[in-house]
Structure formats: structure tokens, C-alpha cells
Amino acid sequence: MKTFAPLGFIDRLENAGGLDPLAGAVRDAVNKIVKPQWLRDVLHGVPLGHPLHPLMVQVPLGAWTSAAVLDALPGTGKASTALVALGLVTAGPSALAGYVDFSELHEQQQRVAVIHSSANLVAVGLYTGSLLQRLTGSPGRGKALGLLGLTVVMAGGWLGGHLAFRQAVGANHAEDVPHRIPAGWHSLAPFSELTTGKMERRLLGTVPLLVLRTQANEILVLADTCSHLSGPLSEGKQQTISGEQCVVCPWHESAFSLRSGEVVHGPATSPQPKFLTRVVDGQVEVCLPGAG
Ligand code: FES
């Protein structure tokens, strides 16, 4: 079966460098407006363990779709007006979560995302007009503008699907690690080769690992591929955050606990696979619970 023709257009969109100034301006504005780290973490979805934006958009999309169904039925004017208003009220926070995610994406993803968000802004404009028409005694025009808004927001949602499933925005980029490593203990490196206090990248088969020999001669090992967008954690920096020894990703500054792999700060929302370690006859061995 041939690929749906418009996908070729989106592939070209990913490489449209002309969108970069607009994407850059939006990114800078978001970073200026949403500064507190705790707020960014909440909007990314760190407490949820996955991105918040796809969850939040269900409310305006559901409200506007329901309003379109009610518009086709007699005597439902008040209910559909209330649903259009609900969609508008909840679109703002949903968009804010999306914009915070947007501010920490690769360029190709930002180019698609900026068109995704532009489509949704047009839809919000159409629904605002729809609401005003309904409230000022022109329900026919309100319904027409609502249908137009729904069409545009669906097109925006299609681009959102491309971002999530083709460009893997919001996905866990370390999910494959337990499937690529056999169960049990594996020899990794001679203990004496590891430099105290220095994060190193070592390969277990084809899987890159971050290895740290601490001042207390403990060996801490995480998957090296950042769960956010595959950044090399071993090239990041060590930092103590709220008493937790962390590694900070060099690409978008997600922070993970070196002891547990848990996310301390986003944009990542999925933890890093954390390996058990032991030293046998001078050789560091690692085991990933749940691997194989
Ligand atoms: S790749 Fe984005 S924070 Fe690591």
C-alpha cells in the first residue's frame, strides 16, 4: 500500500529551514515566560511519568467534537455553547504544556510542531468566533464556525500524531534497553580501569552504558541513552540536586538520579534503566532487573 500522499508534505516540512526563525522566536518566548523549574516539570508531565500535553488535549478535543454532534440535534443550543466554551477554557493550559515540550525538541520536530500549534491557534480563533455568534443570537453562524474549527483542529491533531509517532516526541527513548540485554550478570570492565569520579561510556554488547566509580568505590551504572531524545548522558555533567547525586543531560538538561535512574528534572519523563553492579575477581559485572 502506498503512503498517504500528504505525508510527503510533512517530510518536507521537517526539513523546511525557513521555519526556524519562527520556531526560535516561539522557543525563546516560552523560555522567558515559563521559567520556574517546578512549573516546567509539572507541564512536561514529570510527576505523571509521561507527557502531560497529550492527556490535556483530550478535554478541548472531546468538548468540541461533542459540540459538533449536539449541533446536529434539535434543542441542544445551550449545551453545545457550553461545550464550545469549555474547549476554549481548557485549550490554554493544554497549549502551555505543549509549548513547554516544544521548547526542548530537535529542530526537525520544532518545524512540524510550530505548524501544529499554528493550526490549533487558528482553531481557537474560529471557536472564539463560534462562541460569540452563539451568544449574540446567530447560532447558524456559530455552528458553521465550529465545524470549520473542528476541521482545522483535526488537521493540527494529525500533525501532533506525526510528532508523536513518526518523530517520537514524548516517547521513552531508553525503552529498548531491557530488550537488548540478556538476563543475568555480564562482565563490563576491569574495576582498576575506571577513574574515580569520572563518568565513562562503556558498551555492553551494542548498548551504551554510563559508568561512574564514586569516591567511595561504588560503581553506579545507567543506560547512557537519555530517555528524552537519546542524548549521551556520559557527556553530561554531575550535579547534586536536592541532596541527590545526578547526571544532567548535555542536550536539554534533564536530570536523573545516578543511584536510582529516576527523573529529578524534565524534560524527560521516563526514568533511565538502572543496573545492579558487583565486582568479581577485579571485574565489574552488571545486571539489569527485568532484562532479557
Ligand atoms: S536528550 Fe533531551 S534531555 Fe537528554
Write up what this structure looks like:
There is one protein chain. The chain is α+β, with helices and mostly antiparallel strands. It folds into two domains: 6-166; 177-287, Rieske Iron-sulfur Protein (3-layer Sandwich). The protein contains nine helices and ten strands. The protein has helices at residues 6-14, 20-33, 37-44, 53-56, 58-71, 77-102, 107-135, 139-166, 177-180, and strands spanning 186-190, 199-204, 207-213, 219-223, 237-241, 244-248, 255-257, 263-265, 274-280, 283-287. The two termini are 34 Å apart. The model has no long low-confidence stretch (mean pLDDT 95). FE2/S2 (inorganic) cluster binds next to loops.
Bound molecules: FE2/S2 (inorganic) cluster
For the sheet with most strands, the description reads: 6 strands, antiparallel
Strand content: 15-25%
Number of helices: 9
Q: What overall form do the CA principal axes indicate?
A: elongated
Number of strands: 10
Helix content: 40-55%
